[in-house]
Amino acid sequence: MYASHVEVQVQSGKMAEAIQRTKDLISDVGEIPKLRRFMVLDKGDDKALFLAFYDTAEDQVAATPKAQEVIGRLADLAAAPPERVQAEVAIDHTY
Questions:
Q1: 22 by DSSP, 3-state: which?
Q2: Is 93 within the bounds of a domain?
Q3: Element at 29 (helix H, strand E)
Q4: How far apart, in whole angstroms, are the C-alpha atoms of residue 10 and residue 74?
Q5: Is position 55 within any domain?
Q6: How far apart are the C-alpha atoms of 19 and 53, rounded to whole Å?
Q7: Which pLDDT does position 83 carry in this prediction?
Q8: pLDDT single digits (tens) 16-28
Q9: What is the CATH number of the domain that holds 69?
């Protein structure tokens, strides 16, 4: 399994709006090819972490254009341009 994570520094006081607008994009996020799971973490201090999971590295790479297009709709809320980082999931365990 592979994951993309994007840490976003949200403009001060805009986290609630960023979360709501992300919720409004859920159906569009679902159109990202081969996406298996999507999460957003509110890290506090106006920082959010977007996580997206894929079965293979190839699926992850192929999803990049659509993922950038969808998440790019939140760009006006970011205090700085975010960076999408890709990583292999070393452990995925559910209790």
A1: helix
A2: no
A3: helix 26-29
A4: 10
A5: yes
A6: 19
A7: 82
A8: 999 999 999 999 9
A9: 3.30.70.100
